[in-house]
Write a structure and sequence with these properties.
The protein has 524 residues and is of the alpha/beta class. 45% of the residues lie in helices and 15% in strands. The longest helix is centred in the C-terminal third of the chain and has 22 residues.
């Protein structure tokens, strides 16, 4: 009986195909994967761990760290035992996923391919219709129970129930709504090296890229990192009001989290397995999960209290700047071990914050944008007060951006960087990419939506002919070059600018950051 289920995270498509052409099988330089090549892939590991509890032989494979040829050899040698190959499809690696799926079906057409993650969730109708190599898919985040039931049906009955939540097939294009589902806190860390050697690569990358820099910043010596999920969601999802560039497909639950005892257990499990730098993966922590963080601080476990301070796991995670205004929550986060927070400053100009939909939805959009602007300043002050470092993100470009707004953002970015030079340890400065599933992508494929939004902001987009041309090109397109998409977004949504204008400003801000002693991008 087939009982092996292989969970695969392929490398980004640009790296994947470049390395295939060069005769290499994995990401050689990690240009696009500098960050995630340091850590195991949480989604793949969590699903593999969950399915393994029910008697399946789970196999973990991360193509960012291990040559894809090793996976292909394994599939060929074990084809008659493999029940399914599950692929994690984001926009950046979707073409790679298709390549792996086609290889698997060519090796043995009885092996079922199951796609999931954000890109598939957005484009599942087009994908299921177009690609013979995609047998099934799961949409959204609440997919664990559905995946287990799907595998049971395939293995035991050779047919699939049409009533599984979030499931799509060649015949079922519109999935049933997913229900509530607890976060999986059972992680089998032994899977990381059970079949393929991942840890050696992860540790080498982590220690060469992060260990020294983190020691310089925090005086803490850490050697190995892993993502840990104790919570999932963002306060912005509550009102279906995600930031314009956000492509996260959060499914049916805008917020999901563990009880404080379970959260500490998840942290202990990672620490017991040799990880001392824990990447807490919630999309936003202090605003969305204040109660959990406060309870974790109030009920610290004995094992943690017994550890010397320098031996306790270091925590890092995501925060909105307005969440960092809550002093009691920031104090709790610092108390339980958070040392670095990833904060999306994103824009300096008030109107740009409004265009990016950064503020929480309130009666007065302008007032909330002004409040968000002040929150960026407060975040720096509170980070300094509680000894937390900031890894700041800046987004260049948005619908209707013009030269005046671009210049204003540059001035404000520089003010923020100068003000926070002692707490901002890294600055990610990137052009907006219209990822499928985001509002910015919706503007790209829906000219009427773009014009309505621009009008509400008092800004301008391109003439109808350009908007229609771009929309026609991207309509139902499931594979596209991200650089080309950025070009087209600028052309359609920012007629007063060109990509070179934004690239020049990006380089200016990066240079300014370096002159202040702030690391740029994923050098941290």
């Amino acid at each position: 009986m087939r009982n092996i289920v292989v969970f695969v995270n392929p490398a980004n498509s640009d790296d994947f195909f470049a390395n295939l052409e060069n005769g290499e099988g994995s990401v050689a330089k990690g240009v696009q994967h500098t960050d995630w090549a340091n850590f195991p892939h949480l989604g793949v590991l969590s699903l593999a761990s969950y399915v393994g509890k029910f008697g399946y032989e789970s196999v973990y494979f991360d193509g960012v760290a291990v040559p894809i040829d090793e996976l292909f050899v394994y599939v060929r040698e074990n084809a008659d035992k493999i029940l399914a190959v599950c692929l994690s499809a984001i926009t950046a690696n979707f073409d790679s996923c298709l390549y792996v799926g086609e290889f698997v079906k060519a090796a043995d057409e009885e092996i079922k391919t199951i796609f999931g993650n954000d890109h598939f969730s957005v484009m599942h109708k087009e994908i299921m219709r177009r690609y013979w190599s995609v047998d099934y898919g799961v949409v959204g985040n609440e997919v664990y129970q559905t995946l287990k039931c799907l595998l049971d049906d395939i293995r035991d009955h050779e047919h699939v129930s049409r009533r599984l939540p979030s499931l799509v097939t060649k015949d079922i294009i519109n999935p049933a709504n997913g229900g509530d589902e607890e976060i999986n806190h059972h992680i089998d860390y032994s899977l990381i090296d059970k079949v393929f050697d991942h840890t050696g690569v992860y540790k080498k990358n982590f220690q060469s890229r992060l260990t020294g820099r983190i020691h310089d910043l925090t005086q803490r010596f850490v050697t190995s990192g892993v993502p840990v999920e104790i919570a999932r969601g963002c306060i912005k999802f509550k009102g279906d009001d995600a930031c314009s560039f956000c492509s996260i497909q959060y499914g049916g639950m805008w917020r999901n989290y563990l009880h404080h005892e379970q959260a500490w257990s998840a942290i202990k499990a990672a620490h017991d397995n040799g990880y001392d730098y824990l990447y807490i993966t919630a999309d936003e922590l202090p605003l969305t999960f204040a109660r959990l963080l406060l309870d974790m601080d109030k009920f610290k476990p004995k094992w943690w209290l017994d550890l010397p301070t320098h031996k306790r796991p270091m925590l890092v995670g995501y925060a909105r700047a307005d969440g960092m205004e809550k002093r009691n929550v920031m104090e709790a986060m610092a108390s339980i071990g958070f040392k670095v927070l990833f904060v999306g400053i994103d824009a300096g100009a008030i109107r740009s914050l409004q265009a990016l939909k950064k503020p929480l939805r309130k009666k007065s959009i302008i007032a909330s944008s002004e409040s968000m602007y002040m929150a960026n300043i407060s975040a720096i002050k509170n980070a300094r007060r509680f000894g937390v470092k900031i890894k700041a993100g800046f987004v260049l470009g948005h619908i209707g951006m013009n030269k005046e707004l671009l210049d204003e953002n540059v001035r404000e970015y520089k003010k923020i960087l100068e003000m926070g030079r002692d707490v901002i340890v890294s600055a990610d400065v990137e052009m907006l990419s219209p990822e499928p599933g985001s509002k910015d992508y919706e503007y790209l494929i829906n000219p009427e939506a773009a014009k309505r939004e621009a009008k509400s902001l008092g800004l301008e987009v391109s003439e109808d002919a350009v908007l229609d041309e771009v929309a026609c090109y991207y309509q139902d397109k499931d594979i596209f070059d991200r650089d080309t998409a950025i070009n087209d977004y600028v052309r359609a949504m920012m007629p007063a600018l060109c990509k070179a204008d934004i690239a020049s400003v990006r380089d200016e801000i990066r240079s300014y950051s370096k002159n202040l002693g702030i690391v740029v991008g994923d050098e941290l």
